[in-house]
Amino acid sequence: MRISVIGCGYLGAVHAAAMAKLGHDVVGVDTDAAKVEKLASGVAPFFEPGLPELLVESIGSGRLRFSTDIRDAAGAEVHFVAVGTPQLPNSDGADLRFVRGAVDALAGVAAPGSLIVGKSTVPVGTAAELLGRLERLGSQAILAWNPEFLREGFAVADTLTPDRLVYGVADERATELLDEVYARILDTGTPRIVTDFATAELVKTAANAFLATKISFINAMAEIAEATGADVTTLADAIGHDARIGRRFLNAGIGFGGGCLPKDIRAFTARAEELGRAESVAFLRQVDAINLRRRERAVELAVELLGGPVFERRIAVLGLTFKPDSDDTRDSPALDVAARLHGLGARVRATDPEGIENARLRHPQLEYVDTAQDALEDAELVVLVTEWSEYRDLDPEHVAKLMETARVIDARNVLDPVAWREAGFVYRGLGRS
Ligand code: NAD
């Protein structure tokens, strides 16, 4: 099929390359000329494992190209909309101007009967609004909503082998076209749920709200553990054995971040308020508050461990991205902790395998170094804030030799406290005695 993907960021670039891999003829369109130039030459504009290889393969096959001109999407039978829906600057709501802009632009070029498919995460009710918009603009394209569940770090595999496909449709033809797009994925037995616009939009919002709640639940338990001398990781292991609860997403630490969960739960709260159902998701405000408190707790622990103000103290910060295997620093708890420590006057030296460039754009005031070794040298405290495997695997004996004093805050609870204590470290995790 001929496919266009409008918006080639973390979602869209992977989606475009994956659709070409499935055998389609794809054009990716983005308004960011620098991003398009990179993508067109087979270079991933951000770090995502497997994407560079997929881009090179798909471009080499002649089935994938990129453009800044929406008119290049004109011949497509299916247009995916994968533009950003960030938080509005002065409210919790989602900023829908990019989605509306992309749909307006498509209205001018999409052929009658072609399908416009929303992949961006939007507040419930958006698809219905966009359908009205298309009609007002005289477009005869049809609309569907097909939310995306990929995880950064696993985006390629999640796109090619998703655990489910959700179609929000108002028209049978939309289902037929989406089945054709995803034929090879459906052939492997992937579950497909066909529903209305509102349910499809809510599936995505509800999934993110649930995941955020699970993380904040265990972080709330961490707060109680800290007040009682209990150990939250043992607690998580124990309750996680219950199949109804499950162990995944029960890792206490400095909480969630990134370009999705934080803004999506806020947008959900804002939308529920508009719908007169604020109380139904009022708990999400608590989920958000618990999450943000854990960042502050990591800073408090630094003060505790250093025995007083952090002013002028040398602190190594390992990790800047919101999670490992990504270069994404949007709403990153790791970067936030580094910035807070710096704000208190600490001499922070921060590092990350992939996130320094993005972190520098957000917090140019921080000192960034290329390696963990550079960050650790002569430090009085090390704070592990993103659980990259190279930080999890650090040898505590070696680290102790590099540092001036052996103190560690394991803000992701991924280090072995026994091994680090044996190497002479004062070790503190979050929610651990
Ligand atoms: P992003 O900021 O990385 O990418 C968005 C891209 O859209 C940018 O490159 C921007 O230049 C481009 N753009 C904006 N307006 C445009 C227009 N009119 N025409 C063409 N291009 C335009 O964002 P992202 O992380 O890829 O997220 C995109 C959407 O997908 C969001 O709604 C997000 O919530 C959702 N989502 C993201 C992920 C993820 O892991 N990143 C997962 C699931 C869903």
Short characterization:
This protein is of the alpha/beta class and 433 residues long.
Protein traits:
8-stranded mixed sheet, Rossmann fold, 6-stranded parallel sheet, globular, alpha/beta, 433 residues, 44% helix, binds nicotinamide-adenine-dinucleotide, 18 helices, 14 strands, single chain
Profile the largest sheet.
8 strands, mixed
Query: What is the CATH topology of the largest domain?
Result: Rossmann fold
**Gyration radius, in Å:** 23 Å
Report low-confidence residues grouped into runs of 5 or more.
none
What percentage of residues falls in helices of 4 or more residues?
A: 40-55%
Average pLDDT for all residues? 98
Strand order of the largest sheet: 3-2-1-4-5-6-7-8
Number of domains: 2
Q: CATH class of the largest domain, please?
A: Alpha Beta
Q: Give the distance, in angstroms, between the N- and C-terminal Cα atoms.
A: 57 Å
Bound molecules: nicotinamide-adenine-dinucleotide
Shape label = globular
The count of helical stretches stands at: 18
What's the CATH superfamily of the largest domain, by name?
A: NAD(P)-binding Rossmann-like Domain
CATH architecture label name of the largest domain:
3-Layer(aba) Sandwich
Percentage of residues in DSSP E strands? 5-15%
Number of strands: 14
Question: Which structural class do the helices and strands define?
Answer: alpha/beta
